[in-house]
From TrEMBL:
The gene is apaG. This is Co2+/Mg2+ efflux protein ApaG. Transmembrane segments: none annotated. Residues 8-137 form the ApaG domain. It holds the Pfam family DUF525. It comes from Tsuneonella litorea. Gene3D superfamilies: ApaG domain (2.60.40.1470). PANTHER family: OS05G0170800 PROTEIN. The lineage of its organism: Bacteria, Pseudomonadati, Pseudomonadota, Alphaproteobacteria, Sphingomonadales. InterPro entries: ApaG-like, ApaG_domain, ApaG_sf.
Length: 137
């Protein structure tokens, strides 16, 4: 099944696309637990070889409570992307409310290009996207 990416952001030629889906089978609204899965595709449309080294997420629940998640790489990987390459991964997000939002950025290191730019960090924006459970009947 082809994934429909609903949100995108471009930073210096690097595109981050997001598709998000609510997972009712992993949610327990009666216990105050809702769960989403999101599919990320990172496309290197720049002319430089880059490596994703870390992530920074800002997750806000329906009550306005903010969680910040920082870590190395994505799902245990620090992918290197040549110009024209892409990297896909899937992860999940639990919330204590039936709606919220996510946004953030990845930090990449440039591995090629002008000598003065080699190894220079680059913050690549992850688009803002909503987390919304369907209305309960």
């Amino acid at each position: 099944m082809k994934q429909l990416f609903q949100h995108a952001a471009i930073t210096e030629g690097i595109t981050v696309r997001v598709a998000v889906n609510f997972l009712p089978e992993q949610s327990r609204p009666q216990d105050g637990k809702w769960f989403w899965v999101y599919h990320i595709r990172i496309e290197n449309g720049s002319h430089e070889r880059v490596q994703l080294v870390s992530r920074h997420w800002r997750i806000t629940d329906g009550r306005g409570m903010v969680s910040v998640v920082d870590g190395e790489g994505v799902v245990g990987e620090q992918p290197v992307l040549e110009p024209g390459q892409s990297h896909d991964y899937v992860s999940g997000c639990p919330l204590a409310t039936p709606h919220g939002t996510m946004e953030g950025f990845y930090t990449f290191h440039r591995l090629s290009g002008l000598k003065s730019r080699g190894g220079e960090p680059l913050e690549v924006r992850i688009p803002f996207f909503p987390l919304a459970a369907p209305a309960e009947a």
